[in-house]
Amino acid sequence: MTVAKIYISGPITGRPNYKEQFATISRKLEADGHIVVDPSVETEGLSPRDYMRISLARLEAADEILLLPGWENSKGAKIEKLYAEYIGLRVREYTGGHNGKR
């Protein structure tokens, strides 16, 4: 298996349990030996613009992006997906399997 740096993308705003969801998937990916870039672990109190700037910079460090369920309803996740495609990252949707489809 090839180790990948995987950026997790999904809805955060308005989701009270998003940190738990991101953490659960992060643990699964790390158990498979991957390096996880998790945008849910951020400084509190920044503006949406600040979070997006930080997220796009972190996305630059990844090999691929993993889209969580509901990503299509998230402005930020849609931007991250488009940017990932633009810079040539592999784009996958989380399917609920151990590490999504590879």
Question: How are the SSEs placed, and which strands pair?
Answer:
Blueprint: E1 5-9, H1 18-31, E2 35-37, H2 48-60, E3 64-67, H3 75-86, E4 90-93
Parallel strand pairs: 1-2, 1-3, 3-4
Please tell me about this protein's structure:
The protein has 3 helices and 4 strands, in the order βαβαβαβ. It is α/β, with parallel strands linked by helices. The protein has one domain. A 4-stranded parallel beta sheet has the order 2-1-3-4, sandwiched between helices. Helix 2 packs parallel to helix 3. It is globular and about 40 Å long. It starts with a strand and ends in a 9-residue tail after the last strand.
What features would you highlight for this structure?
3 helices; single chain; four-stranded parallel β-sheet; 102 residues; 38% helix
Number of strands: 4
Head-to-tail CA distance between termini: 10 Å
Decide which structural class fits the backbone: alpha/beta
Supply Rg: 13 Å
Average per-residue pLDDT, rounded, comes to 90
Overall 3D form: globular
Strand order of the largest sheet: 2-1-3-4
How much strand content do the residues show?
15-25%
Q: State the helical fraction.
A: 25-40%
Q: What's the number of structural domains?
A: 1
| H/E series | EHEHEHE
Q: Runs with pLDDT <50, length 5+?
A: 98-102
Number of helices: 3
Q: Summarize the main sheet.
A: 4 strands, parallel
